[in-house]
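Give me structure tokens for this 280-residue protein.
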Amino acid sequence: MGAVFEPIKPYIGSIVHVSKDEMFTEEVARQCREMLDERTVLVFPRANLTDAEQLAFTDLMGARVDFTTRQKANQTAAEDVYQVTLDKKINRQPEYVLGTFFWHMDGITVDMPPPKASLLSARKVAAKGGQTEFASTAAAYDHLPEAEKAELKGLRAVHSVAASLSPIADAIPEEDRERVTSIGLVKEHPIVWQRESGRTTMVIGTTADTVVGMPVAHGRALLHRLTEWAAQPDFSYRHQWEEGDFVVWDNTAAMHRVIPYDDTGRMMHRTSVAGTEAVS
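Here you go.
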């Protein structure tokens, strides 16, 4: 039978109805890969995957990649599974997780193509907050006025982890600040990403700091406007997690952020599908 996809909103998100037995078949993986390109975010309610099952599904979606080695400490999950938590006993750099309170894309400042997809399962949800929001940069670009599309053509932005953590720099202990903000590289990417598939997305979010050749204030204002445009309700979806939920999103066509939470027990397990297409 395969999977059945139920749209959540007109431009983003689908709930995937599939039995666990069928979920790990090549046919369902093919369907999910196709729908991911179309719907950006796929939600598997209460799938209750083990690490082994999540890795198996990740491998069906594409080659896996782990780009967060430096953030790991006493992680107890399987290899290539990153535990997203504020628990300092598990995550030696919880400030890096605080940076996810703001719109971003994964892997934009590492020396490899950005991950094609991120896959996240909820092991323990927060008592308050902790929802994850997704914003389609593909839908956002498609609906820009043609004059604004023309103005963006050829513009490039400078990205860094330091920029993405600037909203919470004061929350990072001074003795750790340089070490935490020096994660990753300073990268220059086009704002408009013309994809090999013909799809067009935008590379924006808090890692984007300045626009090349534009006064700092003007460039940052432009980047903020684009982020606000992409995050509007028509192009975004907020997921209210329940334990066992499994969500897959196209990291090359979406920003995401988490609603702030204080619960150090909140635990999410993330895996990633390697990207095959460099931005630059």
